[in-house]
Amino acid sequence: MKRTFIFLLFTCLMQEMNAQDYKSYPVYEGSDLGLVYTPAAAQFRIWSPLAADAQLLLYKYDEDKIPYQTIRLKKAEKGTWFVKVNKNLQGVYYAFRVLINNKWNDAVPDPYVKAVGANGKKGQVINIASTNPAGWTKDKSPAFSEQNNATDAVIYELHIRDASIHASSGVKKKGGFAGLAEAGTKTPGGTATALDHLQELGVTHIHLLPFFDYNSVDETKPNTPQYNWGYDPLNYNVPEGSYSSNPVDGATRIRELKQMIKAFHDKGLRVVMDAVYNHTGVTEASNFNQLVPGYYYRHKKDGSFSDATACGNETASEMPMMRKFMLESVLYWVKEYHIDGFRFDLMGVHDIETMNLISRELHKIKPDILLYGEGWTAGDSPLPEDQRAVKKNAFMLDRIAVFSDDIRDGIKGSVFDIKDRGFATGKAGMETSIRFGIAAACDHPQVDFQQVNYSKAPYAKAPWNVITYCECHDNNTLWDKISLSYPAASEADRKRMHRLALTIVLTSQGIPFLHAGTEFFRSKEGVENSYKSPDSINAIDWTQKEKNKSFNDYIKQLIALRKAHPAFRMNTTDQLKQQLHFEKSEPGTIIYTLDGSAVKDSWKKIWIGFNGTTEDAFVSLPKGEWKDALGKETEILKEFAKIERYGSVILYQQ
Ligand code: CA
Fold first, then answer.
1. Fewer CB atoms inside 10 A, N or C side of the chain?
2. Is the pLDDT score of 336 beyond 60?
3. Beta-ladder partners of 214
4. 220 CA → ligand 1 middle, Å
5. What's the average model confidence in pLDDT over 146-155?
6. What is the distance in A from the centroid of ligand 1 to the CA of 408?
7. 410 backbone dihedrals φ, ψ, rounded to 5°
8. Sign of CA dihedral 48, 51, 55, 57
9. Is 219 a catalytic residue?
10. d(CA 412, CA 319)
11. Phi and psi dihedrals of 197, rounded to 5?
12. How does DSSP classify residue 181?
């Protein structure tokens, strides 16, 4: 009893001391943390300022429990430990352990590890240049914008496994990197699937859910049904092994991911990586924590781990060595894997200074890189709110966009209330929230901010500051949300609502973002949080594309319209204020015009009408001859346009 008490007191004191001490830890500024390999020698450096001793453990095989050799690292500058092994270690597996408070911590790969064995338990020495597929050094990211304007992007969010695992995909190597690199795949009925579908749709960026090495799927059991979105990071600088054909071999997953990225680039598509630096999948046992207990995380006053992510911990981007890690990690993904953008999970957990540093350094090496993130946290954080990269601080972010939950829920209703509906599903009083979203959360003289559902002030500096969307992997799919919130509506009406929702997204200012399969009414059977649901819920059923061909074609047409007309993709708030005009209209409808000529659009004027009511609307048109932007389906009765119930109309004057 007494001993336990003294031990607890000691532990508390230690935690208290460490919490105060983290800032006094030496900062290593060199760029050689981890492994530097040549055939002649392998150099290893880890940062572990509290360690009294450190060992490099070498293993012949991935599954070995006992190292064939243990090598002592030497204490080196700024809290690092270093060893140079003058041998060709290619293929050897390795781990480190450090002695802290007279205890050897667990053997782990270092946080900077670039190649690992199955389940990421050990690092592997490889010659990374040998992982380059044919043509890799000439691989180029396809252009998507003449002037590096982020608003020229059309993002499509996709989970790697979902894209190919369904029987209808026609993909041979289903479920992983190799499958999504396959070209020419078709359904049995001859409809293009997977990679070919993405190209056909016309989107510019494919945002892939986590494909760094995550913790939840057992890579040694490829034939056991397993599924996860992957928001539980293990090794940040390594691709996920369950997406590779051989997780034991460190080089295979790297080569196969590069092949996939090259296949995307060859099809004119850019690749956005879903980055989850805000927390680690495990806490005490993480690589970070075994080498430098506590340092990389934020803590509560009592010394315990704080948890603004609702995942058990939150990292501390403001700490110099965490900031350095994040920066070097994203730079590595761009340089080694030719990544074209990052989506930062729970970006609000990170500090603004770190995010802006990352943006500046990334833009130096890739001027048209696309950066965006979730401008919120999932719980309270010790980081003061004015330092967080959250939505209300978006205007302080340098070339980084935030997701607009204002327009998301304005369109379809709150994601936290299954029964709630939005503008596109007939809820009254949502017009201003939609106008706010159409103007990309920028200042606009015709938006009454007090009437907006969430934000009572503009938060965007410019349209590039905002992701315009109504649906993502989180929460119900748009189709399921509509069905669950409005079960009384007929299927035909629900399809109209779905179409109206996506029409708003693809014609609004900001950067549009689509969730995979929404172009053919994807359903996850009402499963709201499908992060570990089976393939039967998550897989994309490509026969749905066949069944809903005309809707898929409509979305394709809208994307092409957006890409052809810069009026939908303005770059400054001044342009919006001057060239976007909302017209007076009946409740449940929104009418606005865009002055095309001022933004070098081939159309002089564009007129857009949305009707979120149960009745067709007849709206008077400004003078002049109007044509339908998408074909002949609109009835234009001299000076009136008919907008069908839950419908939209896009007209133009040449
Ligand atoms: Ca893994």
1. N
2. yes
3. 233
4. 10
5. 96
6. 32
7. -60, -35
8. negative
9. no
10. 39
11. -65, -40
12. T
551, 552, 540, 412: which is closest to 470 by C-alpha? 412
Is 240 tagged catalytic?
Answer: no
| CB-CB contact of 79 with 100 (8 Å) | no
Asked whether 544 and 238 are in contact (CB, 8 A), the reply is no
Instruction: Note whether 426 and 646 are within 8 A (CB).
Output: yes
Tens of pLDDT, residue by residue over 126-149, are: 999 999 999 999 999 999 998 999
Catalytic residue among 62, 213, 307, 374: 374
Q: Rounded to an integer, what distance in angstroms lies between the CA atom of residue 545 and that of residue 549?
A: 6
247 CA → ligand 1 middle, Å: 9
CA of 253 to the centre of ligand 1 (A): 11
Q: Do residues 243 and 256 touch, judged by C-beta distance below 8 A? A: yes
Q: Do the bridges between strand 155-158 and strand 205-208 make them parallel or antiparallel, or are there none, so unpaired?
A: parallel
What distance in angstroms lies between residue 214's CA and the mean position of ligand 1's atoms?
A: 4
pLDDT digits (tens, 9 = 90+) for 105-130: 999 999 999 999 999 999 999 999 99
Query: Which amino acid appears at position 582 of this protein?
Result: F
Q: Quick check: pTM over 0.90?
A: yes
d(CA 218, ligand 1 centre) in Å:
7
Among residues 345, 368, 431, 519, the one annotated as catalytic is 345
Q: Is the pLDDT of residue 570 over 50?
A: yes
| Confidence at residue 10, expressed as pLDDT on a 0 to 100 scale | 46
Distance 431 CA to ligand 1 centre (A): 45
Helical H segments across 446-588, by residue range: 478-485, 491-507, 535-538, 543-547, 549-564, 573-579
Q: Which of 8-12, 171-175, 290-294 has the lowest mean pLDDT?
A: 8-12
Among 569, 514, 566, smallest CA distance to 202 is for 514
